[in-house]
Amino acid sequence: MVRPCGLAPTSLAGAIADPPGNGRLLTRVLIAEDDPDIMALIALALGRFGGMAVTCCADGRAALEGVTSVWPQLVLLDVMMPELDGLETLARLRADPRTATIPVVFLTARVQPQDRELYLARGALGVIAKPFDPLTLARQLRRLLADGG
Amino acid sequence: MEADTFDRASDPLAELRGRFFERSRQRVATLRAALAADRPSVATIAPLAHQLAGSAGTFGYAALGRAAATLEDVARAAGSPGAPLDVALIRPHLLALEWQLARADPTRPDPPAAEAAAAFASG
Fold first, then answer.
1. Closest CB to A35 among B51, B65, B119
2. Chain B contacts of A135, Cβ < 8 Å?
3. Is residue A21 a contact partner of residue A103, using CB atoms and an 8 Å limit?
4. In angstroms, what separates the C-alpha of A107 from chain B's closest C-alpha?
5. Is B43 helix (H, G, I), strand (E, B) or coil?
6. Which of A115, A116, B15, B16 is buried most, with the most CB atoms less than 10 Å from its CB?
7. pLDDT tens track, chain A, 149 positions
8. CB pairs under 8 A between A and B
9. Alpha-carbon distance A78 to A74, whole Å?
């Protein structure tokens, strides 16, 4: 299922301290996360505090549908998901010329160094570990985009 | 209001934490049922424990997250996803997880979740 989620951006406070470069312009994000509680927290963190428009998808298959309808500037993917996991979703995004260059960041619990290397080798822009700090999540994404975009 | 307790009416994360606790109780009940039926497998136990490990820490309950992570580690170390698990091996770690869930207070998360709630409330 693909749906807009979280609150409409009500504050750009998160952007004030953001790094210069492309990351500062990050306003449209698509999330794929199968845990509804984490999904809601991310939507709040990015939407209300980060000033972003957030689209929520419950799995990788929904994310692939959502990407070509909302054209996000960045995709945030959980790794372990039903239907289509994060790595396979990334592979399909990269295989489609229309979506091949959309930056992808993984959000995953208990990531090991070798996992991080694998995700980056497959084309992820970055990896954020759970538990994450909702207060700084928007800033982390903008930093990754500024550094790697 | 105590200094380290949030006013639920002004804490935008209170509702999310409430849902998180409700879902965590459901997940633990599912784990308990799997053990009671004497048919736990890695595929049953590890994903539930993994989800709890990731979400508990993010919502500010580090000890609960660590208990879930330990349960996931023990389950995964025991074999392939379809392999049956030794109930005696899993039970102590599930009890530890249940204890951490019982003692966690939905109104008193640890930092940085507490800082985030305060920032959301003021932002």
1. B51
2. 112, 115-116, 119
3. no
4. 10
5. helix
6. B16
7. 666 664 433 333 333 344 445 555 778 999 999 999 999 999 999 998 889 999 999 999 999 999 999 999 999 999 988 889 999 999 999 999 999 999 999 998 878 889 999 999 999 999 999 888 888 999 999 999 998 75
8. 70
9. 13
